[in-house]
Design a protein that fits this description.
The structure holds 3 protein chains of 3 kinds. Chain A is mostly helical. Chain A has 8 helices and 2 strands, in the order αααααααββα. Classes of the chains: A mainly alpha, B mainly alpha, C alpha+beta. The interface between A and B is large, with 40 and 43 residues.
């Protein structure tokens, strides 16, 4: 198992946001700043790794017909644990991510990986898969969050680098801006991928 | 409780897709054809209204009295998953062609952030059961509206040539952004 | 890399119920454990948050714990607002009131308003708001809140602040400005009602 190749798969070839177009809701909803995007990405990665781990351990005892409900219970439990732990130990991030924390449970990536990977492969490969897919997701959120924060607020990680009353492109902090920014990022990503595969050939 | 304000705000001002970003996955996936969009809207409306009814009941009569609100996420998503299964079975019997048309998208309603999102939102705002149902129904209408507008526009894209990188998801997202911008004009209309 | 796929066990009624039950029980145990471990910390966080807000809107010369002496007064809509009296040597030096308004753009706006013993506004702190970034969320800025300081609502017509009269609204954010005033007026009404007791 080539770890580097796995990371390339998760970050580039099968990037959850830019290629598979999964997990759009949190991607658009929390990326008003780089920090929020990063926080959500890490939280989702944690749930992804844990759920892949448990589901992979249980795969031989779960009857086929009830596998979806079992996956859901496992995923929802880990999400609730993340919810509670965040509320206790990271209250500011908890407030910033708000309603999107419980929504991690319906992030198609997690259920998707459980169905496609963890329920069929061993424990360590499943955890690795969770890690690389989660990393790809986190990077995507971080990039989008940074773009929106820089253009929309003239700041990064809450540090403003323009004058206090300078005009910034507020559009990017607002809902329409999220759509447009992500649309262009996906387009750029597609273009880069295409050029890469053309030079590889 | 001002139901009219809640309904119009949910449909136009705080549109669940264009403003809150709930329900994007099916939004991008189903909106290519107008009649699948309509079918999806009806299915989502049905599931969302029913689920806000059941989840608000569970919240009011089970979670709060026993002080186990932290079980909200788990219980809600299980309720929603069950309801979707039910709708699938009913649809299979009642209208097989629609069932075939919606295909993969039906079970995907379970992972539609909109359904769980609206249910959680209703409990966060501490709406009573009736208000929650009205809220759920209104948001579903908003979802349908956004979906149908979007599908109608997308059917037209197929007629134009687009730069290859922009084709597919990017142009869909950018269009959604412009529609979202248009909807911002509704801000402050219903106070 | 090929891995041997272990077939799941058969899906008959008993195995399904059994597995689901076990999974549910384990999940409930794990969640219950996490809840018990975190609930005290969560309650503490919210208490600290309230104390911090109170400290921001009242002068620092009090020697009691306002959160412990907290009392509630209902507003016209039946909701109970928390009032936190600050005392020094038993004498009232100020009251902080946690107020709200539902007239904002998105979710409820929550403010902590500090009044002095003569019911004059000392300062205001925004606890929660989800107004439009770059526009409505400027209600949290000092330049906007500055206008409210030292106002004595007893001397204002109708005992309520109005945008365009005593208060200059934020450009292109009238709704957020009005909602802010609504919350402040509400706090004042509750303060007077509490006084009559």
């Amino acid at each position: 198992m080539n770890i580097l190749r796995e990371f390339k798969r998760g970050i580039i070839q099968e990037n959850a946001v830019f290629v598979l177009l999964l997990g759009m809701c949190p991607t658009l909803g929390v990326t008003t700043s780089a920090f929020n995007g990063l926080g959500m990405g890490i939280a989702t990665t944690a749930v992804l790794i844990c759920s892949n781990l448990v589901i992979s351990m249980l795969k031989s005892v779960i009857p086929q017909k009830v596998r979806i409900p079992v996956f859901i219970v496992v995923i929802a439990s880990f999400v609730t644990m993340v919810e509670l732990l965040m509320e206790a130990y990271l209250p500011d991030l908890f407030k910033a991510l708000g309603i999107f924390i419980p929504l991690i449970v319906v992030n198609c990536i997690i259920l998707g990986r459980a169905e496609v990977f963890a329920s069929k492969r061993g424990v360590l490969p499943s955890m690795l898969d969770g890690l690389v897919m989660g990393t790809g997701f986190t990077i995507a959120l971080f990039v989008l969050g940074s773009v929106r924060e820089i253009l929309g607020n003239g700041a990064i990680f809450n540090q403003k680098f323009v004058a206090e009353d300078a005009s910034t492109i507020i559009f990017f902090i607002l809902p329409p801006g999220a759509f447009v920014a992500l649309g262009y990022l996906v387009a750029i990503f597609n273009r880069m991928k295409r050029e890469r595969s053309e030079t590889d050939n | 409780m001002d139901y009219i304000v809640i309904i119009f705000t949910a449909i136009f001002v705080n549109n669940i897709v264009l403003h809150r970003f709930f329900g994007i996955c099916p939004f991008l996936g189903v909106s290519a054809r107008l009649n699948t969009a309509m079918g999806m809207s009806v299915a989502v409306t049905f599931v969302m209204t029913l689920s806000t009814l059941v989840t608000s009941l569970i919240h009011a009569f089970v979670l709060v009295p026993h002080q186990v609100e932290f079980l909200r996420t788990v219980s809600f998503i299980l309720v929603i998953a069950s309801l979707v299964q039910m709708v699938e079975l009913v649809l299979k019997k009642v209208s097989p062609p629609m069932y075939k048309a919606l295909g993969i998208y039906l079970p995907l309603i379970t992972t539609n952030c909109a359904i769980l999102g609206v249910a959680v939102l209703a409990t966060q705002r501490e709406y009573g059961v009736l208000t929650s149902v009205v809220f759920g129904f209104a948001n579903a209408l908003g979802f349908g509206l956004a979906l149908i507008i979007f599908a109608a526009m997308r059917e037209r894209f197929t007629l134009y040539g687009l730069p290859e990188s922009l084709d597919g998801a990017p142009i869909a997202l950018i269009t959604a952004g412009i529609i979202s911008l248009a909807f911002m004009g509704f801000s402050g209309m219903f106070q | 890399m090929v891995e041997e796929k272990k077939g799941p066990i058969s899906s008959n009624f008993f195995t399904m119920v059994f597995v689901l039950t076990i999974v549910a029980v384990l999940s409930a145990l794990a969640l219950g454990l996490t809840y018990v471990t975190t609930k005290d910390r969560i309650r503490l966080n919210s208490q600290l948050e309230t104390q911090r807000a109170i400290r921001k809107v009242l002068p620092s010369n009090y020697d009691n714990d306002p959160t412990r002496d907290r009392y509630t007064v209902s507003d016209e809509e039946g909701e109970a607002l928390s009032c936190f009296p600050a005392r020094r040597d038993g004498k009232l030096v100020g009251t902080a009131i946690k107020t709200y308004s539902d007239e904002g753009f998105n979710e409820r706006i929550e403010l902590m308003v500090g009044f002095d013993p003569d019911q004059r506004i000392i300062d205001i702190y925004v606890c929660e708001q989800s107004e439009t970034p770059g526009l409505g969320n400027k209600i949290g800025q000092a330049s906007f809140i500055e206008q409210f300081r030292n106002i004595s609502l007893q001397q204002v017509p109708g005992f309520e602040l109005v945008v365009g009269r005593e208060i200059d609204g934020i450009t292109a954010a009238t709704i957020s400005s009005r909602a802010f005033c609504d919350a402040v007026n509400r706090a004042y009404r509750v303060l007077s009602r509490g006084r009559k007791r």
